Amino acid sequence: MRTHIVAVAFSALFTSTVFAATPDVQSLTTPCAECHGPAGVSGAPKTPHLNGQLADYLEQEIAGLANGDRATGVANHVPKTWSAANIAAVAQFYAQSTGQRPAQAVDSQKVAQGQGIHNKRCSECHPDAGRQSDHDAPLMAGQDLDYLIEQTKAFVSGKRKFVFLMDDAFRGLTADELAAVAHFFASQDQYKK
Ligand code: HEC
Ligand code: HEC
After folding, report:
1. How many helices (H) and strands (E) does the chain have?
2. Domains detected in the chain
3. Residue 91 in contact with ligand 1 by CB distance below 6 A
4. Ligand 2, atom nearest to 181 Cα
5. Any idea which UniProt keywords this protein has (predicted)?
6. pTM of full prediction above 0.90
């Protein structure tokens, strides 16, 4: 009898813990949708698409936005109060979200120039035209053009910290050359045909 009561108490405790810890992704991402779209395909200018991005990368960046490690122009971008479980669940949600990123107006000359630079300098970590990843780099194909250009500038100015030898890849490239690589990534379809 006694064991039975203990077991019931335990299972009640377990159920309520699990319940409290299950993140409600729908409500958590409601404010994000205003800029990143309900499924991570962004509709706002200079705003990255999050759909189909690597979960580990998203988790790292969302945590960085919450704890201030990543500089951002958006006030209260990710609430500081988000638990690690919330961050992981939201990262998974966007990573698994499929959707069509809008085609963008790109300059074909810059795309060609950017492809050449990419093949020499960037493809080691952003292979297959940015559809794949090595060394924990994010996926880039079909990403928002203006966002990509801003981020290359942020790395050069030091607003965003270079990670794992990307500074070597950037060394000696002008802002125009880096923008050309952004045109190349932006011109790519996110999914392999
Ligand atoms: C007011 C518009 C706005 C809202 C709301 C917003 N974001 Fe963002 N987000 C941006 C912009 C703009 C950037 C890029 C520049 C920056 O951070 O300032 C960005 C960048 C990001 C990035 C980095 C993506 C990458 O490729 O590195 C992540 C991850 C992200 N946001 C997640 C979220 C989450 C999660 C929420 C909701 C809690 C959210 N954002 C709410 C506008 C917004
Ligand atoms: C040695 C590996 C490596 C090389 C080479 C490399 N990158 Fe990266 N790149 C990364 C990593 C890792 C990140 C993620 C940085 C972070 O965690 O903040 C990244 C992130 C980026 C981002 C930000 C994407 C986003 O969604 O916010 C841009 C833009 C970028 N790289 C451009 C380039 C360009 C252009 C080149 C070539 C000139 C290049 N990278 C070469 C590893 C690399």
Report:
1. 9, 0
2. 23-96 (1.10.760.10), 108-187 (1.10.760.10)
3. no
4. 35
5. Electron transport, Heme, Iron, Metal-binding, Periplasm, Signal, Transport
6. yes
